[in-house]
Amino acid sequence: xxxxxxxxxxxxxxxSYSSRLxxxxxxxxxxxxxxxxxxxSGAEIVTVAIRRTNIGQNPNEENLLDILPADRYTILPxxxxxxxTEDAVRTCRLAxxxxxxxxxxxxxxxxxxxxxxxxxxxxxxxAEILVKDDFDVMVxxxxxxxxxxxxxxxxxxxxxxxxxxxxxxxxxxxxxxxxTIIENANVPILVDAGVGTASDATxxxxxxxxxxxxxxxxxxxxxxxxxxxxxxxxxxxxxxxFLAGRMPRKRxxxxxxxxxxxxx
Length: 264
Hints:
alpha/beta; 35% helix; 3-stranded parallel beta sheet; 8 helices
């Protein structure tokens, strides 16, 4: 792909975003650090674990929405901690009530506590229910191109394959599967889980991903705010490199200045 267009927006469920970095809100030391890191990331979509975070359901606790003004951020409720279809669907419906009819959700149905890999069968079931219930579903899944396509066919507005296990920081373990998913997709593809540092984010974007969602890589860095800034730059650099179109890889040297026409 090669384009000189300055209008390179990420479109999710019909809404345009200038940032292609989506961030989570867990694992920070406190709300102050959370707010500073999110601001440094430049993210416009912020995901919130409904089962772990207070966004109004507990009036006597700190409310995360106090540092995430609605005019600045799109809140993306997620179903982290759900291990079956019923819990995931119920959590999305709770989020819709808490957020006054909010339709955009991130669906994840986990298979086990150790790996946190997705339960693909339950994910497909939950996605079908939520799409029929008029949710705009961004869905976490494994890096299987066939499952990714099936989730798109169900009606998910974005498919989010893992790059490596959640919280592992291992980077892009199977770039060819991610690339195949991207090549066959008609909805945005965002890497979700596995990014550890800014170079991982750049690699994902150079593959052609439409965006990246991350949490642990920022929150568990020695300086979360500085890492958030680095991730922002990594995503931007990777996207620009993808749009620019890299030079082909060659086995042997190719002189920067042509040999022909040298003055002898």
